[in-house]
Amino acid sequence: MTGINFKEIEEKWQRKWEESKIFDAEIEKGKKKKFFLTVPYPYTSGPLHIGHGRTYTIGDMIARFKRLQGYNVLFPMAFHVTGTPILAIADSIAKGEKEVVERYRNYVSIYEDGEKVESIVNSFGNAENVANFFAERISEDFKRMGYSIDWRRRFNTTEPMYNKFIEWQFKKLYDKGVIKKGKYPIAFSIEEDSAVGEDDIEEGDINKVSIIEYTTIKFELSNDTYLIAATLRPETIFGVTNLWINPAARYVKVKVGKEIWIVSVEAAEKLGYQREEAELLEEEEVEGGFFVGKKVKEPVGGREISVLPASFVDEDVGTGVVYSVPAHAPYDYIALEDLRLEIAPIKIIDIEGYELPAKEICERMGIESQEDERLEEATQIIYKDEFYRGVLNEKCGEFAGIEIAAIKDEVKNWLKGKNVADVFYETSRKAVTRGGGKVIVAVLQDQWFIDYTPSWWKDRGHKLVEEMTFYPEKYKAYMQDIIDWLALRPCARKRGLGTRFPFEKEWIIESLSDSTIYMALYTIAHLLRQLPAEALDEKLFDYVFLGIGDAEELAKKVDADILKRIREEFEYWYPNDLRHTAPPHLSNHLVFFLMHHAAIFLENQWPKAISLNELMIREGRKMSKSKGNVIPLAKVSELYGVDLYRLYCAINADFASVVNWREQDVDALRRKFNALVGLFEQSMGVEKLKENEFTHMDRWLLSKFYRKLKESIERFETFRIREVGLNMVFNLMNDIKYYEYRESEERRRRIVRNIMADWLIILSPIVPHICEEMWHRSREEKGGRREERRLKFISLQTLPEIKEALIDDRVEREEEYLVSLIEDIKEIMKIARITPSKIYIYTAEKWKWEIFRAIKDLPDKDKIKEAMKLRKDKSTVDFVKQMMKNLPSKKTMEEHILYFELKEEEVLEREREYLMREFGCEIGINEEYDPKGKKKFAIPLKPAIYVEG
RNA sequence: GCGGGGGUAGCCGAGCAUGGACAAAGGCGCAGGACUUAAGAUCCUGUUCCGCAGGGAUACGAGGGUUCGAAUCCCUCCCCCCGCACCA
After folding, report:
1. CA of residue A51 to C1' of nucleotide B73, angstroms
2. Which bases of strand B sit closer than 7 A to a protein CB?
């Protein structure tokens, strides 16, 4: 066991890295190629957990690997503060909402002692304090995780410098003509009189609330007075037989333009938030029962239909009026059955497998009452079937013969064109805010958008993606699709933290739109700070980022040297060589990141690559605060050790798979990791083996090591970090174990010494602290000047050269040969239940080798014929048959030609001692004695064996 | 329904592009053994079935096909996951 105090060495090396500023990236022109890596900045509304940590950790591994490859690496970090959640939290805490206060007490106590917690949480009534507190803690967490970040460039998204930068970004977009204004539906709280997001809604994080567009259809009751039914299936209007109304619900009149609409009280209120012209008439409310039995005119065919009562109609969904299509809607069918009215369903959709879909599904499922909950499910089934497979029939006029999926929108537009249909929005489920206020859909009349539809923009986006690399590759095609789908996107809201919208100051730029090109800011953030915020105007950014404008002109306002440096830094570091994040960002953040670069920056500043790793779950379940199963990143060091966590992230899954954080597996890995560290420790103060001392086994281990090292470097380049970890930890340790078995513990200590430096280097991106420690310990022994040692961090090394000469196929084949021979002998001993007194091994005779060489490249069917030409004897046929059965194909033979050149007898003689030790008996090699006639079964590379009991 | 990804031993998970040493890496679990007063850790062995000679049979979602040979290539089908779409 190792006596290492991991926590201590983590802290020691983190401190030394920081003191030596080795991760502060400076321009090094000419000497090294640069590599600029970014991972999205964290949102500072609370502590990060180990799931978030995966992405940052992998980002750091890449940064460290690139340094080893000789790149001048910039890996910066900042903090995301803009948006509504932090503000909402601050508001809740200011109001003293118990649940939120309690949650934040817990969060804060991750970091602080009991006494301070209260005052800190109290300070969270101010949003800025929330953001600052967590930004500070998260940056400490990141340092504690050993991330090789250049912290000088840190910023947050509400500081003036950032605001100026975002203003510039929006001016650029505005100039391109893609910033537009229009109507837009949003989730809205009446009580709080404001838009609400996922974080404001009760259980909004678990059960998302989306906005559903209903179509309202007017059924004329009398002149200009209509009952307004809402539907999700406007194409079924051709099959309407009656209206449904809830007799117990209350209805009112709303004046919309010149018309009077009758809807439920709830719907009237919603209409008020959705249509500017809707005006509630000051008349009394009427019970739904009032309308029962009245006749209305359906708008397509002008038929008179009845208003009927139905309990399933919910006054708080849609308009509280529903039109009935009993042929295709299970609810309608059942409700009519309940009323025992003779209303014939009108079938308007032809679909294979059904005559009257609604009737049949109800019968099949045994649904008999409109209170039956399975009606929902029946509706789903019918909807799905009809939507994808159904075709409108001859009752649908010009739309006949077309499948629903293709015609739905056209029918809707046609109805709107006839002025019988309108849009009504509803939430996808009933929802309330965390404060208990009802959530409805409101339509903003003058929402600001980014319009992603112009073809010049999409073309540039596609081109940009085409020229990029994605890891894993499959996401490239997916990203192209996302660009095609992208249309209008709201980019400002009335609430939240952030940059004021430059064209209308009461709007705040929305938080996904203000985090699209900020990577550019990293290149210059530390320098920009030296300028006053007022100086950061459009002209300055134009010059720095786009090279537009006159430096001399600008120098009148800002320091010319600083300006020059700023421009240089940007030109040096940009573009962003790799953005590493997680797949859920593809359809939002990443596509904006790419599109905004495509719109604003010159082509040579476009991003080069994106890599993505999947998320992390714990014990097979998603991590979430509501499940209470999150482990804060801040606790990693204490609970597991940072290097162990990092190793787990590297090894448990490849990028494309979810990491499952299982304590059992973590424990298993800990044992492995400790054993690894033990191997290094046991080789401290031990002499390397010199080349003239090398035995077969030494060469074998060196060959195994350098082969694995070579493969690992290749794999790291394409971010197959899992394979690197498995190779360089698990597989290599197994090799060493085998080596020790073959040789001795003592010799193992020495051979590990031969490979230790190179081994530590390749492991250092994954487990940097222990590697740094072992690296220094192994140097310390040798003396050397202190100063020199201080500078020689393993983090600053370059990848070891692959000692190709040590990769020795022959040596490896010899050992494989021996292993398989031993397996065969053991197999025989087991099957025959013999304890051997002597084991006889017979290698293939010379003539067999000759025939083998002569025919190995021939197709199987010619082999015997050819062999017989060379040696006319029945034993030749037996041998060739035996050989064909046992030896691999032509192709693999070529790959392993060396294997077949193996001098079997030599190897056996050399290993006679080992074989004797292994079996505890005499070994006879190619002796004449052959009582059971085994010798004739020998083929090249597969000796015959006789075990004597 | 469309797009994407999958289905491999008790479980997790590699292999599949370039078919052949594949009864299938590695890990976990389980069983036996060594060590130990004991537990743990560690190490060894085993973990489809049959076999007193290194072998054979059956196997990689199901079924067909191509091939001397298929986990790997082709076709059909089934199932799972994600995104989209969509659900009075």
Report:
1. 39
2. 1, 3-5, 12-14, 20-21, 25-29, 41-44, 51-56, 68-69, 83-88
| Token pair of A122 as six digits | 């109290």
Helix (H) or strand (E) holding A242: strand A242-245
Q: What are phi and psi of A821, to 5 degrees?
A: -65, -45
What's residue A846's pLDDT? 86
Does any strand B atom come closer than 7 Å to the Cβ of A675?
yes
Name the phi and psi angles at A262, rounded to 5: -110, 120
Q: Residue A602 and residue A492: Cα distance in Å, rounded?
A: 26
A657 touches strand B (CB under 7 A): yes
> Which CATH number covers residue A827?
3.30.2320.20
Predicted local confidence at residue A1, as pLDDT: 46
Residue A850 DSSP one-character state: H
Residues A316 and A273 in one domain: yes
Asked if strand B comes closer than 7 Å to A151 Cβ, the answer is no
Angular region, A30: left φ>0, alpha ψ -120 to 50, beta rest:
left
Last residue of one domain, picked from the residues A782, A807, A832: A807
Q: Domain for residue A888, yes or no?
A: yes
| Domain shared by A763 and A833, yes or no | no
pLDDT in tens, A669-694: 999 999 999 999 999 989 999 999 99
C1' of nucleotide B20: residue with nearest CA: A889
C-alpha separations of A77 from A149, A246, A541, A864 in Å: 7, 57, 21, 70
pLDDT at residue A408 greater than cutoff 60: yes
Q: Is residue A930's beta carbon less than 7 angstroms from any atom in nucleic acid strand B?
A: no
Which among A571, A610, A615 has a CA at the least distance from the CA of A592? A610
Task: Please state the rounded mean pLDDT for residues A46-70.
Answer: 94
Domain that holds residue A798: 672-807
A748 with A776, same domain?
A: yes
Stretch among A15-19, A39-43, A104-108, A396-400 having the lowest mean pLDDT: A396-400
**Are residues A293 and A306 in contact, defined by beta-carbon separation less than 8 angstroms?**
yes
Report yes or no: A823 and A906 within 8 Å, Cβ to Cβ.
no
Classify residue A534 by its DSSP letter: G
A524 vs A35, A518, A530, A562, A574, CA distance in Å? Answer: 15, 11, 10, 10, 10
How far apart CA A178 and CA A163 sit, in angstroms, is: 20
Q: Which distant-in-sequence residues (6+ apart) come within 8 Å of A811 by Cβ? A: A696, A699, A700, A703
In a domain, A612, yes or no: no
Nucleotide nearest to A889 (CA to C1'): B20
| Helices within A402-516 (DSSP H only) | 404-417, 455-467, 474-485
State both tokens at A138: 């998260």
Q: Using the CA of A859, which nucleotide's C1' is the nearest one?
A: B68
Neighbours of A526 (CB within 10 A): 18
**Is the minimum distance from the CB of A231 to strand B below 7 Å?**
yes
Q: Which of A427, A449, A476 is the last residue of a domain?
A: A427
Q: List the beta bridge partners of residue A156.
A: A79
To the nearest whole number, what is the mean pLDDT of chain A?
88
Asked whether A357 and A386 are in contact (CB, 8 A), the reply is yes
Q: Give the whole-angstrom CA distance, residue A100 versus residue A93.
A: 6
Q: Are residue A844 and residue A782 in the same domain, yes or no?
A: no
Residue nearest the C1' of B18 (CA based)? A891
Contact, A809 CB vs strand B, < 7 Å:
no
CA dihedral (A311, A317, A320, A322) in degrees, to 10, reads: -80
d(C-alpha A699, C-alpha A677), whole Å: 23
pLDDT in tens, A426-480: 887 788 876 678 888 888 888 898 999 899 999 999 999 999 998 888 888 889 8
Radius of gyration of chain A (CA): 37
Q: At what angle do helices A374-389 and A404-417 cross, to 10 degrees?
A: 90
- Find out whether A530 and A492 touch, Cβ atoms under 8 Å: no
